[in-house]
Write a structure and sequence with these properties.
586 residues, alpha/beta, seven-stranded mixed sheet, three-stranded mixed sheet, 18 helices, 10 strands
């Protein structure tokens, strides 16, 4: 005899439906229930400074470049375009430096005890992940939260799993959890049709069951959170009636592979500081990462219903990177969106292999490029528009950097190019610079690229210190992360450029489950054949004098894509990489 998941475990109880209409993206909207919230004057001034300093630095760079190219008495169209592209790309680099510098001055907020509690639903969307481990993480969080405290919590497993056998495993895991923890409220629901992917899954629950809950803690299948951080978020939501969403700054779990270990180290040391700086200048106009966040249910229902974009995927259809858009719509309606770095026990996982990471990144690229269409939605806060642009630029910047790399790597006239390129108006005419000046420019650019990491290290040492006996291992991790990230940067750039062009050309990648497990040599060779071939071609051109020797490091890195990917998926235990933070994973 067989059982359906609905027979194995009780599903959501019936409650009054909560309307969540599609938002009109052609007219402003204000939620009449929103108390209204504004950033204090200090935050506005800080925001202006953070956004203005990179603009001034970029303008100075453009002015110097203009004078440099005009040394020969003329300025070609190609040179003017190169100056513009260089300045636009460099703006985001300087913004990262300023944000990281601001993170050094972060101070945790002290919250009072709220007079009333909230009914909070912990939402766990699933799409074919391992049932025991995924549900087990959420169950441990629920069990650790105080049962008789000021806030009440319940767990809701929202399955979009397509495989009936996996769905049975999910339902059985929930049934076991209910039997072992009878005092906890645990619900299970599986959708027959997974319309609109994760955002549709959440929306379906909000409409059917959200009316009975003040807030919803949205997790991902790989989320791990500590109870104290959840209580901090709940207190903040109860104390601030104008706040619609509180987003933590998740860090990456150490995982099993070298890639996961170094990603975890980078997020712990560099990402935490960046998150603090970001929280300081965004204030109540922060962003949403889609998980490890606490959302006011009725505000979300009234303000954040996502319509389909006109046209076909990938440029139209379902909004894949829904989180940025939902945050922008909440802020448009008058609700605050706040980042909360002090809720420190917030973690997520990352794919254990480079292939898994790049496949997920391709889906994110498609979703983030949709944001370009939403930049001029009426009523959006200017900072929300900036977040949407920043999300798109995370991928468009790779196109800029590739163009810059090619143009800057070309030798000047008479420097080895064939005669047909001499005096070509499509190519820049490079003034001759002393070798020391060229090295100084390269060093300055390199310093700006690593400055956020250096500032992150300074912030980490300030908050946690570094015992002398741990210093060699910490330094080793810093060097390993820097070297591996530098060597893999050209490969990541090539794949992001490829993902951008696939989206622009109308090729829909859809929503794919995470890739798990190590890849064999054949898979690595097939997946990385593009960058390997490109690297070999560039290396040959550089060695024959057709391209500048400045391009040699890039060419070598691309040629090493396969062995680097194989190295990245090796067990991190073989390299003795452990967590470096004193904080405990819940």
């Amino acid at each position: 005899m067989t059982f359906s998941p609905r027979q194995l475990v009780p599903v959501e109880t019936e409650s009054p439906r909560l309307a969540m209409p599609d938002q009109n993206l052609r007219a402003p909207f204000r939620d009449p229930q929103a108390p209204g919230i504004r950033s204090p004057g200090r935050t506005v001034a800080l925001r202006a400074l953070v956004l203005l300093v990179p603009a001034l630095v970029t303008a100075a760079l453009a002015w110097l470049s203009l004078g440099w190219f005009a040394l020969d008495g003329r300025l070609t169209v190609a040179e003017g375009g190169l100056i513009g592209v260089s300045a636009f790309a460099f703006y985001w680099v300087v913004l990262s430096v300023v944000t990281a510098m601001l993170g050094l001055f972060w101070r945790d907020r002290k919250l009072a005890r709220p007079r009333h509690g909230l009914r909070i639903a912990i939402l766990l969307p699933m799409y074919g992940e391992a049932a025991d481990g995924t549900i087990g993480n959420a169950l441990r969080l629920l069990a650790a939260l105080p049962g008789g405290g000021r806030h009440s919590f319940s767990l809701h497993v929202l399955s979009d799993t397509r495989d009936p056998a996996q769905a049975l495993q999910e339902a059985a895991a929930v049934a076991t959890a209910r039997r072992l923890h009878p005092a906890l409220t645990i619900r299970y629901r599986r959708r027959a049709l997974n319309r609109d992917y994760k955002s549709g899954n959440i929306r379906d629950w909000v409409q059917s069951s959200g009316a009975a809950h003040d807030g919803m803690l949205i997790l991902d299948a790989d989320s791990v959170m500590g109870p104290q951080s959840v209580l901090q978020m709940a207190d903040a939501l109860a104390l601030e009636p104008g706040t619609g969403l509180i987003q933590t700054v998740p860090r990456v779990l150490p995982g099993h592979s070298l890639w996961q270990g170094l990603q975890g180290f980078a997020s712990e040391v560099y990402g935490t500081n960046m998150g603090r700086g970001f929280a300081m200048w965004t204030g109540v106009t922060g962003n949403f990462l889609g998980h490890n966040a606490l959302v006011r249910t009725r505000a979300f229902a009234t303000s954040a219903g996502l319509p389909h974009l006109t046209g076909r995927a990938p440029r139209g259809g379902v909004i894949l990177s829904h989180d940025f858009v939902e945050a922008a719509l909440l802020r448009r309606a008058g609700w605050g969106v706040r980042m909360m770095p002090e809720a420190e026990d917030s973690f997520e996982d990352t794919p254990e292999t480079l292939i898994g990471y790049l496949r997920r990144d391709g889906r994110w690229c498609q979703g983030n490029l949709q944001h370009v269409r939403l930049l001029f939605v009426p009523g959006l806060h200017p900072v929300s528009r900036f977040h949407l642009l920043q999300g798109a630029m995370a991928y468009l910047a790779s196109v800029w950097w590739l163009a810059l790399l090619v143009l800057w790597a070309l030798p000047g006239q008479g420097g080895g190019l064939p005669d047909i390129f001499a005096d070509n108006p499509l190519l820049p005419s490079w003034p001759t610079l002393p070798p020391l000046t060229q090295a100084a420019i390269a060093g300055l650019v390199g310093l700006m690229l690593v400055a956020p990491k250096l500032l992150g290290i300074a912030s980490h040492l300030r908050h946690h210190g570094l015992p002398f006996r741990r210093a060699p291992r910490f330094l080793g991790l810093v060097l390993a992360e820097l070297i591996l990230s530098a060597l893999l940067a050209p490969t990541l750039m090539v794949h992001q450029v490829r993902a951008v062009f696939r989206t622009v050309c109308g090729r829909d990648g859809g929503w794919m489950p995470h890739v798990s497990g190590r890849s064999d040599l054949g898979t690595l060779l097939r997946f990385h054949r593009l960058e390997t071939g490109l690297g070999a071609a560039l290396l040959m051109l550089a060695l024959t004098g057709q391209l500048s020797l400045w391009l040699m490091p890039v060419a070598i890195s691309l040629c090493l894509a396969v062995p680097l990917a194989a190295l990245a998926q090796m067990p991190r235990s073989a390299f003795h990489i452990r967590r470096i933070s004193r904080r405990r994973i819940a």
